[in-house]
Specification:
five-stranded mixed beta sheet; 2 domains; alpha/beta; Phosphatidylinositol Transfer Protein Sec14p
Length: 294
């Protein structure tokens, strides 16, 4: 699929942060004079406690855990332990998974990720759950695609600092969808979006929700901490409400924005050609041969 002219679906992997993002990083506790010391402290903690065996312990890898927990070494370590425990408990989300095999989620317009950032510099991911057909696409594929996006996003230094934004579009949600949201599924969703990945989900915006969502949300409520609740915003069909948090310049037209929408497939095809990304995904257990399909 040819990439639209003038639109670039790619990661920005430069270690040096843009000035505005570097300033945000400083407010989060990132101090260039202490970075090496805190990385070494986290590395020593991994060796001494032995509660997980990371597949990497180089500086770049450890930094993303530290950034995800605002440079609190103990919290970064606990996040790493949860991350590897989650992986060990859910190997079906990544082991022998070919990222290109997940392209149906883009073809069916269930997931899309914008090549544009919001006014704060954050990535915006849209999940249109009402378009998901459980009889066609198993729920495990939704988890696989979400985990893949978060793994890849966590490689991007700017996203490590700023986090990302999720838009949960619930137009067309039915009881058939709700029946798939068991407490076990809800726990795994929260683990991915809030507690067990080295990339913060800064905000989650719920749009086009109806009475079915109210029923399904009862499963999630007991699992939410106060901090998680503070990241949730409910807008219904009120686009002006959504625009208070995300500038229309960063949104597709369906949400009152100015941008066209591009399928998830564009990201998959671009990332499959990025050697650094492919190498990291292989280390994580993904299959990359062949990544592209004819």
């Amino acid at each position: 699929m040819p990439e639209p002219e003038g639109v670039i679906h790619q990661l920005y992997m430069e270690r040096q942060l843009p000035p505005k993002v570097a300033e945000v990083a400083r407010t989060q506790g990132e101090d260039p004079d202490r970075t090496s010391l805190m990385i070494e402290e986290l590395r020593d903690m991994i060796y001494e406690k032995g509660e997980c065996i990371p597949h990497r312990i180089d500086d770049d890898y450890l930094i993303k855990f530290l950034r995800a927990r605002f440079w609190n070494v103990h919290h970064a370590y606990n996040l790493m332990v949860r991350y590897y425990a989650f992986r060990e408990s859910n190997p079906e989300f990544y082991e022998n998974v070919n990222p290109m095999a997940l392209r149906s989620l883009g073809d069916d317009d269930i997931i899309s990720i914008s090549p544009y950032r919001d006014q704060e510099g954050r990535r915006v991911i849209c999940f249109k759950f009402g378009k998901w057909r459980p009889s066609k696409i198993p729920i495990v594929d939704l988890f696989r695609a979400t985990m893949l996006l978060l793994e890849v996003g966590s490689l991007e230094p700017q996203s490590q600092v700023l986090g990302g934004i999720g838009i949960m579009d619930l137009e067309g949600l039915t009881l058939n969808h709700a029946w798939n949201l068991t407490p076990a599924v809800a726990q795994k969703m929260l683990a991915l979006l809030a507690t067990s990945m080295p990339l913060r989900t800064s905000q989650i915006h719920i749009v086009n929700q109806g009475w079915v969502f109210d029923t399904a949300f009862q499963i999630f409520k007991p699992l939410l901490t106060d901090k998680m609740r503070q990241r949730l915003f409910f807008h219904g069909t009120d686009r002006a409400s959504l625009h208070k948090y995300i500038d229309p310049e960063a949104l597709p037209e369906r949400y009152g924005g100015t941008k066209p929408e591009y399928p998830y497939t564009y990201w998959l095809e671009h990332l499959s050609r990025d050697e650094k990304v492919v190498d990291e995904l292989q280390q994580l257990g993904y299959v990359s041969d062949p990544l592209l399909e004819d």
